[in-house]
Specification:
7-stranded mixed β-sheet, 271 residues, alpha/beta, binds S-adenosylmethionine, 8 helices, 39% helix
Length: 271
């Protein structure tokens, strides 16, 4: 699919128009998001995170074969370990800034290369074909996307913590959204309406039911991800946003999470 400014403008107009129903907004959001990838039945019975990991791996497989893979923000290494199990021929390096989780990851998954490293400083020492990130908080997702663009690598990232996206100069991240060229004309609306409402509504809205505030929050988050999609498209990527898991996960205590959408970028020059 191609993310267009018309679709961005339309979603923004309906979410800020008090007269449009949550059902109509939800229907439009659903039309922009692809369904969950088909998973082997055995992979959807674990925890919610297990299912998300299986979904990310299935999406990666849908992009073709990858030899050198980097995971950013790997924590204790479950995604990297599952990827390595499914693809023993791949070279996967997984990094996290937190030394303690990297020690645990190394102990629990000796077959994967784990490194304690800050993604903002990190430069890969090999050509990468794929970069993965599951729940890279705030602008960490944008660093993941930046590294993918710099390396012409495919990318799959599941964003979270929209409240941590930089909106003030005193925040640490070097990245300011919107970063796409196409949204520069709408920079102020993006900052003062889209990013602000995605941030402010987080944590105050019950997102497990399609109430109007929940649907509005989903729309503002999706509008933030439009900027990420535009930026990738402007850098030669085909982009999709897809669910990594279904809403209902058998065996999971929690039935639903709104943080289950992956941005998938396929680099057009990637062979
Ligand atoms: C929300 S957790 C997600 C962990 C794991 N991917 C998962 O899905 O369970 C975000 C992770 O990113 C790591 N992180 C945060 N900033 C980072 C940075 N600058 N460089 C590398 N890792 C970072 C954190 O230490 C944390 O483990």
């Amino acid at each position: 699919m191609i993310f267009t400014k018309q679709a961005y403008d339309y979603l923004l107009s309906i979410v800020t128009n008090g007269k449009i129903s949550s059902i109509d907004i939800n229907t439009y959001i659903s039309s922009l998001i692809e369904g969950v990838p088909t998973l082997p039945a055995t992979q959807v019975t674990g925890t919610r995170k297990d299912a998300q990991i299986a979904g990310v791996i299935a999406l990666a497989e849908s992009l073709g074969e990858h030899r050198n893979i980097l995971e950013i923000g790997c924590s204790k290494g479950h995604l990297a370990a599952e990827y390595a199990k499914a693809h023993p021929e791949a070279n996967i390096t997984a990094i996290d800034v937190d030394e303690a989780v990297i020690e645990t990851a190394k102990r629990e998954h000796p077959k994967v290369i784990f490194e304690q490293a800050d993604a903002w400083q990190y430069q890969p020492d090999t050509t990468l074909q794929l970069i993965l990130s599951l729940h890279g908080c705030g602008n960490l997702t944008d660093r993941v996307i930046e590294l993918a663009v710099e390396n012409k690598a495919n990318v799959i990232c599941v964003p979270c913590c929209y409240g941590k996206i930089k909106r003030r100069d005193n925040q640490k991240s070097p990245i300011y959204l919107p970063r796409s060229n196409i949204l520069q004309v709408d920079k102020n609306t993006f900052k003062n309406v889209v990013a602000r409402r995605a941030a402010k509504m987080e944590g105050f809205v019950t997102t497990h039911k399609p109430t109007l505030p929940a649907v509005q929050l989903a729309a503002f988050r999706l509008l933030v991800n439009f900027d990420r999609a535009f930026y990738l498209q402007e850098n030669g990527y085909q982009v999709k946003i897809a669910e990594v898991t279904t809403k209902y996960i058998p065996g999971s205590k929690s039935l639903n999470t709104p943080l289950r959408y992956a941005i998938i970028g396929k680099n057009d020059t990637h062979s």
